[in-house]
Design goal:
The protein is an alpha+beta fold. It is built from 8 helices and 7 strands, in the order αααββααααβββββα. It has a 5-stranded antiparallel β-sheet. Strands 1-2 form a two-stranded antiparallel sheet. A hairpin with a 3-residue loop joins strand 1 and strand 2.
Length: 242
């Protein structure tokens, strides 16, 4: 009996972590993640509810935790802690100052819940990891965090943008997504000036102002955007960014 209960206990703990990390979690996704039936997940959710965890069931959507409910700090395994420290060393070489500052603040909070033995190991590991990208630690932008907030809140951005061919324009854009390539952050946005989607290098944005006005979300995934771009340009030569 004891051996059978161990996997379930681990699964229940993991389900709580999932509920903490996402707004909505479906029974199907949990069943697939832990290799059990949906009926088993239903039983797990009922067990959590009986133990006092305020799980909210949203019919037709999934499960969530009651707003404002706080659980004890998450405990990290040694490998998970090492993964976070490795990520920190990569991010410290990033070119966006706001990204570096906010991740550094977050990692301090994460380190605060590590066990003493883990803290010693992650500090040692941090001294033994080195990435040669951006060796001069050049910070070429300071607006990535503002852009991320605008993407999730569907807020318009006004940007003063100097393109690669030195053309300076002012634009109102609807931020859609960001991605990183060759050390540079790129913003995908619907440009109201051009009335089409455009890609902007974040380090070429000379001024960025967050607008109070919001916009309707675009009914398209990032993957669908890339597929459309591929179809549009697969038979044409590469063109410079906006």
């Amino acid at each position: 009996m004891e051996e059978k209960e161990k996997p379930r206990l681990s699964r229940l703990t993991a389900i709580i972590t999932q509920l903490q990390s996402k707004k909505i979690v479906t029974a199907k996704s949990l069943a697939e993640k832990y290799g059990v039936s949906i009926r088993t997940i239903y039983r797990d959710i009922r067990t959590l509810e009986k133990s006092g965890i305020p799980v909210i069931t949203e019919e037709g959507k999934g499960y969530s935790l009651m707003e404002g409910y706080q659980l004890p700090p998450v405990m990290f395994t040694e490998k998970e802690a090492n993964a976070l420290i490795t990520a920190e060393q990569i991010i410290l070489k990033n070119k966006d100052k706001s990204f570096i500052e906010n991740y550094s603040n977050a990692i301090v909070k994460i380190k605060s819940v590590l066990r003493v033995s883990q803290k010693e190991k992650v500090d040692f590991l941090a001294e033994r990891i080195h990435f040669r990208e951006n060796p001069e630690k050049e910070a070429s932008s300071n607006s990535l965090m503002t852009i991320q907030g605008a993407i999730t809140d569907f807020q318009l951005l006004e940007i003063k943008y100097c393109s690669l061919d030195n053309n300076l324009t002012r634009r109102i854009v609807e931020p859609f997504a960001i991605y990183n390539t060759k050390g540079n952050w790129l913003l995908i946005a619907f440009c109201r000036l051009r009335k089409a989607f455009r890609v902007f290098r974040v380090d070429l944005i000379q001024k960025l102002i967050l607008q109070n006005e919001t916009f309707e979300p675009h009914d398209m995934t990032l993957e669908e955007y890339f597929l459309k771009c591929q179809e549009k340009y697969q038979n044409t030569p590469d063109t410079p960014l906006s």
